[in-house]
Automatic annotation (TrEMBL):
Record protein name field: Polyphosphate kinase-2-related domain-containing protein
One Pfam entry name: PPK2
InterPro entries per the UniProt record, alphabetical: P-loop_NTPase, PPK2-related
Span of domain Polyphosphate kinase-2-related: 10-221, 258-483
Gene3D superfamilies assigned: P-loop containing nucleotide triphosphate hydrolases
Organism, as annotated: Peptoniphilus equinus
Length: 489
């Protein structure tokens, strides 16, 4: 077990005094719009409930809540394992306390297994992403001896609270105390990150443990406040080392075309094949995530429409991603995408996506340089998590040249049925064509992965583009199903 915080420097204070100090800092956190995540783990029957009560009792109830996680349900297991926890991240100005968490799942996975390693990596990515987004992440583990745990259970039973507080797991842990202690020790040491270290509380005296927890929270909130103030005063200087050697968009042959006759001859058969494959993915419980990006007026939505034309609409959801709402801006930028992921067997199609972070948010200055630069690491991690869960992840980038874009813009303005597709923002973006191309080239080069490839689509001719999207989906879906069959054997 990691060493306990033994300094006891908060013993001289009363719990209420520390709670009031924490509440004062909570008001500053609220004002500075800092999210706070408190993870409280530990032995069952270790006094976690009383510690939680003492942590929150002086806080403004409008700005904190306690989320109790039970073991993942079958419904939750139909998504990547960290999805429920991404959905539950604290918003800006808010303190959220997890009673049990993803660590409950980690402690109950077999060590030295693929599932254990994947979850451990997902946890590290999750906590680092939140920390980098200026979330204060504080983790506590309440440690008790075998004797103390047993006495706590007996006291709860004597008080008549057995049905509420003493579960099968409490007894199981006490019966196999040494085995569980080794499991906890291994998990705690493996996830004791510099940016989110564990604080071990001695549960022998719950009042003293509460004081330690409150004191540590006071210290950590002060550090988080200082980090946020430094950021607002100019933050840290970012030195970028990226030098683009390739320009993938310039390498595309945009003169490729497909005649109307050839298009008509292929379209329906390809749509049927695509629909058949979607059903096979559904039966194999393979989730599918498709991303469509491209320059404005490239024909993304037309390609999506032809791709899913014959698919069962109950199994496919298209998400039209625009600028984040006021609510979405109060969370880490990936939060709104985790909420749109497909369950096993279903398909989610994103017309624009999380790649806005490194395109429009970069070019228009909606994200700071260190934020969009950091996304080059976070986005492949996000997609790897989807792939490791079994998902087929494909990313299409549809490209047209500047002259073709102008023609399509003008056609939209002249057609009453298409005027909704052209906005002042489209014209403003066009004025920054070179800046967008630079950002797009970097994105394509730095985020292409075998498990989540970019498929570049020559879009000047819509017929050619739509057929290429269909053909590549069919090819990739067949390969993914075949690879999955090989793993299942």
């Amino acid at each position: 077990m990691l060493e306990q915080d033994t300094a006891k420097k908060y013993s001289e204070f009363k719990v209420k005094e520390l709670g009031i100090k924490l509440a004062r800092l909570g008001r500053i956190v609220e004002h500075l719009e800092i999210p706070v995540l408190i993870v409280l783990e530990g032995w069952e029957s270790s006094g976690r409930g009383e510690i939680i009560y003492n942590i929150v009792r002086e806080l403004n109830p409008k700005f904190y809540d306690v989320k109790v996680f039970e073991p993942l349900s079958e419904k939750e297991k139909a998504y990547p394992e960290m999805t429920p926890y991404w959905n539950a991240i604290p918003e800006k100005s808010h303190i959220r306390l997890f009673d049990r968490s993803y660590y409950y799942e980690l402690f109950n996975h077999k060590e030295a297994s693929a599932a254990y390693d994947l979850l451990k990596q997902g946890i590290e990515n999750y906590e680092k992403a939140l920390y980098d987004d200026y979330t204060v992440v504080v983790k506590f583990f309440v440690n008790v001896t075998e004797k103390t745990q047993r006495e706590n259970m007996e006291a709860l039973i004597d008080d008549g609270y057995e049905q509420v507080y003493v579960e099968k797991l409490d007894r199981e842990q006490n019966k196999h105390y040494e085995a569980y202690a080794k499991r906890f020790e291994h998990g705690l040491e493996a996830t004791n990150y510099s940016f989110a270290p564990w604080h071990i509380l001695d549960g022998a005296d719950v009042k003293e443990a509460s004081k330690e927890a409150l004191g540590i929270l006071i210290d950590q909130l002060q550090i988080g406040i200082e980090r946020m103030l430094r950021r607002r005063e100019g933050g840290m200087r970012l030195v970028r080392h990226y030098q683009g050697d390739r320009h993938p968009l310039a390498e595309l042959d945009l003169t490729k075309t497909l005649s109307e006759d050839d298009y008509d001859a292929q379209l329906k058969d390809l749509q049927k094949d695509a629909a058949d494959l979607q059903l096979k993915l559904f039966m194999a419980k393979v989730p599918t995530v498709l991303v469509f990006e491209g320059v404005d007026a490239a024909g993304k939505d037309g390609s999506i429409e032809r791709l899913i034309k014959r698919m069962d609409p109950r199994m496919v959801k298209v998400h039209a991603i625009s600028a984040p709402s006021a609510e979405e801006n109060r969370y880490h930028y990936l939060w709104r995408f985790y909420k749109r992921l497909p369950e096993d067997g279903k398909m989610s199609v994103f017309s624009r996506s999380w790649y806005g972070r490194v395109m429009v948010e970069r070019v228009e200055g909606f994200a700071e340089k260190n934020e969009w630069e950091r996304a080059y690491k976070e986005l492949p991690q996000f997609e790897k998590e989807l792939y490791d869960h079994g998902a087929l992840v494909l990313k299409y980038f549809v490209m047209i040249d500047k002259d073709t874009q102008l023609t399509r813009f003008e056609d939209r303005e002249d057609d009453p049925d298409k005027q909704y597709k052209i906005t002042e923002e489209d014209w403003r973006n066009r004025n920054k064509w070179d800046d967008y191309i630079e950002a797009m080239d970097e994105m394509l080069e730095r985020t292409h992965r075998d498990y989540a490839p970019w498929i570049l689509v020559e879009g000047n001719d819509k017929n050619y583009a739509r057929i290429k999207v269909l053909k590549t989906f069919i090819q990739q879906a067949k390969a993914h199903l075949k690879a999955r069959e090989g793993k299942d054997k």
